[in-house]
Predict the 3D structure of the following.
Amino acid sequence: MQRRIYDADHEAFRETVRTFLTKEVLPHYDQWEKDGIVSRDAWRAAGRQGLLGLAVPEEYGGGGNPDFRYAAVLAEEFTRAGAPGLAIGLHNDIIGPYLTSLATEEQKRRWLPGFCSGETITAIAMTEPGAGSDLQGIRTTAEDRGDHWLLNGSKTFISNGILADLVVVVAKTTPEGGAHGLSLLVVERGMAGFERGRNLDKIGQKSQDTAELFFNDVRVPKENLLGELNGAFVHLMTNLAQERMGIAMAAIAAAEHLLEITTAYVKEREAFGRPLAKLQHIRFEIAEMATECAVTRTFLDRCITDHANGELDHVHASMAKWWATELQKRVADRCLQLHGGYGYMTEYRVARAFTDGRIQTIYGGTTEIMKEIIGRSLLG
């Protein structure tokens, strides 16, 4: 089915993204995978190309365009290229809204120009070793010391954790914490007591640096409080729908691309003297995946349009996230199976897509959490 959510400007932007990927990312990606981290040069190149801070007002160095469909184009093209390591979606779509909607004028002028140029790489630190998806279980504390906060605690599974120059940290600013006692504090590279642990060894997305972070009596200036004191829970809930949409967009793009790769493969690969595509079982597998992708794409495009218009609610974002990521997981598994032994070889795109994509049903809220959100909305 022909997609109707993009116009000529979006497609022109798509060509810009593809050119950037061809020139600045793909020639270096295998090395980044071996290194376990991308080059900071790639971030600066993305800034020069105008791919960072698309929704940030022009006065701070951004693109000044809040149309979420441009973010969707970025997610689709990076996914099709098999390059999740350069976490532009995390930077733009997850952390960007916190800075543009919550920061004071002084904070915007201090942080946003570097955010848009690629000189300042960002991360958000919510997850803790004992808390997972449960914000109520956060133990990191920030004690009011008059002119600063004294921050203590640790975070884990933090994307961009090694490279990040600016980390938005969720911490308890009351003894109780929870829904009415969490705040967002911005920790900057070089602050005394801020330490990074190891670059975690993952099964996929090797080039996306994911780290443990430690805060030992970090003196965070009062002017680095982001948003309202004790208002983090509301701030986090406000932005989660966009985070989940970003994951969902990547998921359906991955499923569609895997289907393309596998369709081409079964046409060429022969078994028992004829192409795999001539076998009824193979045709049925392809037909089922194609139908599931088409139906999912239709729903996702509606969600993208609604979000671009400010009309998407958190329940439908949760539906999109769990359904699209579970579809991606199923399609990756089935496509690898149809590749046979070759699918298990890392030189084949389907193998890397299988391991890179496995995290999709986990981060940004697990499938189980998404179902709980949807169920509560329907049943109370």
